[in-house]
Amino acid sequence: MSDCYLPRLGGIEVQVADLVRVQREAGHEVSVATATRGEPLPGVHRIVAPMPFDLPVHPFGVGHLTRRITSARPDVVHVHAGAVSPFAWMGVRAAHRAGVPCVVTVHSMWDPVTRALYRLLRLAYGWERWRLVATTVSNAAAAPIRAVAGPLVPVRVVSNGLDLSGWAPPPGAPDSRSDVHVVAVGRLAPRKQPVRLLKLLLAARSQVPAHIPMRATIVGDGPARGQMERFLERHGMASWVSLPGRYTREQIAKVLESADVFVAPAPRESFGIAALEARAAGLPVVARAQSGVADFVKDGVEGLLGRTLGDLARAVARLCRDPELRVAIAAHNRTTPPTAGSWEAVLDGFDHAYTHALTLRTS
Known about the structure:
Keywords: Glycosyltransferase, Transferase. It is an enzyme of class 2 (transferase). By secondary structure, this protein is of the alpha/beta class. The protein folds into 2 domains: 11-161 and 342-362, Rossmann fold (3-Layer(aba) Sandwich); 165-335, 3-Layer(aba) Sandwich (Rossmann fold), CATH 3.40.50. The protein has helices at residues 11-25, 61-72, 86-98, 112-125, 139-149, 194-206, 225-234, 249-257, 273-280, 309-321, 323-335, 343-362; strands at residues 32-34, 44-46, 77-81, 102-106, 133-136, 155-157, 180-185, 214-219, 241-245, 261-264, 285-288, 303-306.
């Protein structure tokens, strides 16, 4: 069950659709319930209501989903939720009503406001006593869920699944050219704080000697683009920082081929798909130590980690100034494929979560 599903295109929608495909290929019988409008798809049941802006919410979702679960009698209900996903949590309640084991995958990082909301819902509904099994995509994302849910809800870490074969770097040693190309990829949305990325780059540039050419490419689009363009003009950065817009997967892979450093500055990044793709492409990754990226990037091995924006700026500057360190990390990443994100590990992780949920329900 998921609020959002195809034809919408976003992180959760694509991840859930890929999981459904891979599980079916592995021999599981999988059906989907969603509140997203769209064309008929095999095994996809759209429970939709006329809502403003086609919001994926149904005012009577609990009843519809309870009847659906009761008639289908699945072995387990797997609910996919973002930070706040009303339809998904209606699915959790419906599974509890129907007496069917339930696994809840939380795809986002719970911030303080979200944690407060779920504490209130716990008081109102007592959901921590529903014998749920929770999964999330990184250790960083698991910590706030455990703090809210308490010991009655086991929280397992199962990473996002990715096919990383298309991100492998071209053969040969990493380039040690004198100019340094820094790349970031992501939606230019205010909640992602993309202007802070520009401040990071500006601070890093001030710490790099003028004789070392430095340029940056920020791939993506969104409502914060205008604000970013004004910042670039105001600080004289437009000559070395480009905002080319949204790119296809193939175009991003081509940009990564020309890159030397990848930056993932978001502190509440629950997993970091773009960072893992860059890691698979052989790039040193600079990211927050408190984000999900730290699950597959160790400081000084696959990249450099920091806790503050200043830490990240110093890390980018260090990689720009030190070609030997940059090339050493790139060489490691090129010769050591990441273990995170493999679909084999993801399927195994969810199979264990389903078994755990079945055990809780029958105990």
